[in-house]
Every structure is written in C-alpha cells, then in structure tokens.
C-alpha cells in the first residue's frame, strides 16, 4: 500500500510457488516453509461464547429502522471495536452475486498455469502483483500462501500491467466489487466515529482521498500444516480491513485475544472487519488493532479476499485531541501516513512491531 517501492535490489533467494509445490503433496516440507517450534500454529480450545466474535447487523445502522435499534447496534459496534477489534458484519449491502462472482474469478486465476500468473510478478520490496509479499532475505521463513495484491484507489497508485487479463472480465468485476466494499468502509468509519462520540464525518474529513487496496490470498492444502504458517502474525496498517472468505473454505483465520489464538468461524455471506493500526493511533489506543494470522489445512485449499481502507498517503496523522488528557497521555507521535505505509511494507510481518514507528518511546529514568 506504500506509494514508493524499495529501489535497492533485495536478494530473497529461490521462492517455490506454493500452489505448484502443493500439487506434489510432499511428505517433506521445504525448510524455508518449516517454522521454528515456537512459531508453529496452535488452535485454542474455548467455550463457544468466548470463541465467537461479535456480529453486527449493518441494516440496523444504515436503514435506521427505529431509533432504538440504531442505538442498540451502535453500542454493539462500539463494544466490538473496544473489546475485540474484530467483528463480522451481516446485511452489509455488498451484492451477494458480486461476491460470488469475484470469488469464482479469483479461484480461476489461481488455477491458471504458473506461466500465466508469472506475467504479473510481485517484485521484492513491492506489494502489487502475484507471488509472496514481505520477503526481504534469502533465509527468511516463507508463508504457505500465494497472493495477488493490487492497488485500487487512488488510481494513480495502480500498476495496470499487474492487473490480470485472465479470467475474462476479472478487472471489471474487481472494480465493481471494490466500489461496493469502499462504500461499506465509508459508512463504517462514520458509525465508528459516532460510537466514539465524534461527528460522523470526523474520520472522513481527516482521511482525504482514502487509499484502497486488495490482497487475494490462496492457501493450498498442506500435508504437514502443523509445521507451516499460512500468513505470519501481524496487525494491519490500514484504518479498516474487510475480509471475505470463500464459500467452502476451511477455518484459517486466527486472532490473538487475551494471549490465546482463536479460530474465526465466518458466517455465510458475512464479511469480517478488523480495526487497523491507523484507528489505534487516532483514538490514542482506545480502539486497538489486533494481531492475527492464517493457518494451513491438511485437506482443503482456502481462499480469502482482503480489502484495506486507509487514509491518503499525503495526510498527517496522530492521536485526536478528544482522546488525550491527563489520564490518557499521548501514546503516538504525529507522522505522515505515506511514510508509515512505506515503513509497513518494507519490513517483514512481525506481530504489531510495525506500530513502533508511531509510538512515543518513553525513556527509563534509571
């Protein structure tokens, strides 16, 4: 999502295409994918009421059926943002046929011959095209995932050469899908602002021409899923992230809550939303971004479509004055969002470490 890619060459060594690798169903996983014991995935065993994230019925917010319903759902949204940082949205207004179409075309893209997909290469240090992102050295452990990442808005951030020409009408469908998801994001940030006691346009006016990008992730089945990581633990640099999990995909997304990795069971036709680092900064930590990761499955492939919605690269950001007082000292410095975005994509995914860029470092008095 950064405006400027790395210019200096990066030696990432040989990177196997995971989809091609999975076709051979190897008994032995290549060492670059095998995680250290401390990094290998585990799944929490929790009671159902603790394992299920909040569900927001967007129609109660957008249609204003009754004032009571609106206020009730607004409180649910505010509670979800504060206590979870993740929630599922139902009745979100994104056309279900469109969701099905972009999902089908995305699957078709990943099933194309490797030579066709390699026409859209993701170069080291960039985050557009097909391949693996956030790889910066030849000995770095790799995720069990292939992805197609594209800038959507502003249009001058796009690289048209990296938009696939196959399957037919993929680009047109992605454009239409992205417009609908953008509308959802624009509305969500308004309701999040209201829930915080701000004017509904508070975030919109601050964001300028909001940045939007999509990353379509394909996680092939893995013969030894306990050894690999689908996507390394991280928080998102965005304001909001919207995830659509393909129908029939196994559970793969996990979020870190209260020190435990919890698997996310998505509802049919729902979208999963999470708070990004940007909202954490703007609210001075009242709402926090949440570390999450993806795990592989032994028997089934998984597809997810992830949209990132963030402020313009040109804007300056920092905690809003409404969230800073004597009891809540300022935790983050002011910074240019474009510089933060550049910092984010030029470092490997490593929990919430990217947010250190914005933190005010306190000095030990001793």
UniProtKB/TrEMBL annotation:
- Look up keyword Membrane and say if it applies: no
User: Which PROSITE patterns does UniProt cross-reference here?
Assistant: FE2OG_OXY
Q: Organism source for this protein? A: Arachis hypogaea
* Record domain Fe2OG dioxygenase: where: 209-311
Sequence similarity: Belongs to the iron/ascorbate-dependent oxidoreductase family.
User: What is the name listed in the Swiss-Prot or TrEMBL entry for this protein?
Assistant: Fe2OG dioxygenase domain-containing protein
Keyword set for this entry?
Iron, Metal-binding, Oxidoreductase, Vitamin C
Q: What are this entry's molecular-function GO terms? A: L-ascorbic acid binding; metal ion binding; oxidoreductase activity
């Amino acid at each position: 999502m950064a405006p400027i890619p790395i210019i200096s060459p990066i030696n990432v060594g040989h990177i196997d295409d995971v989809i091609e690798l999975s076709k051979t169903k190897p008994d032995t996983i290549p060492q670059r994918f095998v995680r250290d014991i401390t990094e290998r995935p585990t799944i929490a065993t929790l009671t159902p009421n603790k394992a299920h994230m909040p569900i927001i019925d967007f129609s109660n917010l957008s249609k204003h059926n009754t004032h009571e319903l609106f206020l009730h759902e607004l409180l649910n949204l505010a509670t979800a943002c504060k206590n979870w940082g993740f929630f599922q949205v139902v009745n979100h207004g994104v056309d279900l046929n469109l969701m099905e179409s972009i999902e089908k075309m995305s699957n078709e893209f990943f099933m194309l011959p490797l030579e066709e997909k390699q026409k859209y290469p993701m170069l080291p240090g960039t985050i557009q095209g097909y391949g693996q992102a956030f790889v910066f050295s030849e000995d770095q452990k790799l995720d069990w995932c292939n992805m197609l990442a594209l800038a959507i808005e502003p249009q001058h951030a796009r690289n048209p050469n990296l938009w696939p020409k196959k399957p037919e009408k993929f680009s047109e469908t992605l454009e239409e899908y992205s417009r609908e998801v953008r509308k959802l994001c624009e509305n969500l940030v308004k309701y999040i602002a209201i829930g915080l006691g701000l004017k509904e346009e508070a975030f919109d006016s601050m964001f300028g021409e909001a940045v939007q990008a999509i990353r379509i992730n394909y996680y092939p089945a893995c013969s030894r899923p306990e050894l690999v990581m689908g996507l390394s633990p991280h928080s998102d640099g965005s304001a909001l992230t919207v995830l659509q999990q393909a129908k029939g995909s196994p559970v793969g997304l996990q979020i870190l809550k209260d020190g435990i990795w919890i698997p996310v069971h998505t509802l049919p036709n729902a979208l999963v939303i999470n708070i990004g680092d940007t909202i954490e900064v703007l609210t001075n930590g009242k709402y926090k971004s949440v570390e999450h990761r993806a795990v592989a499955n032994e028997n089934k492939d998984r597809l997810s479509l992830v949209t990132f919605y963030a402020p313009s690269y040109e804007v300056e950001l920092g905690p809003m004055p409404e969230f800073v007082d004597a009891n809540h000292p300022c935790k983050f410095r002011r910074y240019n969002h474009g510089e933060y975005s550049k910092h984010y994509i030029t470092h490997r995914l490593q929990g919430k470490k990217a947010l250190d860029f914005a933190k005010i470092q306190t000095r030990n008095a001793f």
